[in-house]
Amino acid sequence: MKTVKKFNKWLVTAFVLPAVFSAAPLSAYPDNLNLVGPTEATGSDAQAADFNSFAFTSLFPYIFNNSSEGKFEPPANTLLPPTTLLSPGSLQLTQDSNVRVYFVGAMDTVQKNSLGLNLNGNFNINPGDNSLIFPNANTAAAAGAGGDPNAPYAGLAVGDFVDIGALSAGDLLEFFMLVNGANGTLETLWTDPTQNPGGFNQVHSIAFDGTPYTLLAWEDGPFGNVDDDFDDLFMVVEIVPVPEPETYLLMGTLLAAVVVLGHKRKAAQCQKSS
């Protein structure tokens, strides 16, 4: 019953509260990091609308069905929907792809965590890096730390997203969390457990087989010392492979064939009519 009430409260809060975005510059955010790009509103394009449909039909039921006693505990795999629990670590692209990150929710409304992405392969975060995705990855607003010119931060709505852009095959997606970053970072956690205090895994990564979506569920406290509920931030990475040049060539050839066939049919119809 505790899990049901907690989950329902999260859904109501996430969809009722509107996301409000300021026209602030994309710099001088938590830890003096710059933004990867602007946050776009939920459902604001066809791709985002498709994600929202997936969220209601597959994602939310999956999270709910695998949550108990206030903890999210995904199994190794499921059949409905078909999912696979990935080994802990950074995600690596197998081919050139366009990448987008969606905010899904956060059960922890006390700590206002920030979400970022490092593509350097060195796990270093330096002031001025364009690596921050969501300064306040939460449905609740954050007051912000002293001296932050972009604070306060509004809460996000389910489905709000940031386009990471076109990345190359072999790139590592090294996501990081600034714990309570919107109000003053306490520590930094990574998808790669070797970079975390004690070498503990702080993220469950679940691929929804046959879709471009991978769910990341974060635990924002030191492993073993807090609740280990892995519901402090839910986010989804959408990876859409870019067609190979050969694919474009094939598409162009097929289109040319269709055009030629259309001209032949039109010519034949003209001959018959004459």
Describe this protein's structure:
The protein is α+β, with helices and mostly antiparallel strands. It has 2 domains: 2-242, no CATH class; 246-274. It is 23% helix and 26% strand. The protein contains 3 helices and 15 strands. Strands 4-5-13-14-15-7-10 form a 7-stranded antiparallel β-sheet. The chain is globular, with a radius of gyration of 22 Å. The N and C termini lie far apart (78 Å). Residues 15-26 and 247-267 have low confidence and may be disordered.
Strand tally is 15
| Assembly annotation | single chain
| Largest sheet report | 7 strands, antiparallel
**Strand arrangement, largest sheet?**
4-5-13-14-15-7-10
Portion in helices: 10-25%
| Shape, per Cα inertia axes | globular
What share of residues are in beta strands?
Answer: 25-35%
The chain-level mean pLDDT equals 84
Sequence of secondary-structure elements: HEHEEEEEEEEEEEEEEH
What radius of gyration results from the CA coordinates? 22 Å
**Derived structural class:** alpha+beta
Uncertain segments are 15-26, 247-267
Give a summary of the structure in a few sentences:
Helices cover 23% and strands 26% of the residues.
Name its key features.
single chain, 274 residues, alpha+beta, 2 domains, 7-stranded antiparallel sheet, 6-stranded mixed sheet, 3 helices, 15 strands, globular
Q: What topology emerges from the helices and strands here?
A:
Elements: H1 2-16, E1 34-35, H2 46-65, E2 67-68, E3 71-72, E4 77-79, E5 82-85, E6 91-92, E7 97-105, E8 114-118, E9 130-134, E10 161-167, E11 172-178, E12 188-190, E13 203-208, E14 213-218, E15 233-241, H3 245-273
Parallel strand pairs: 1-9
Antiparallel strand pairs: 2-3, 4-5, 5-13, 6-11, 7-10, 7-15, 8-9, 8-11, 11-12, 13-14, 14-15
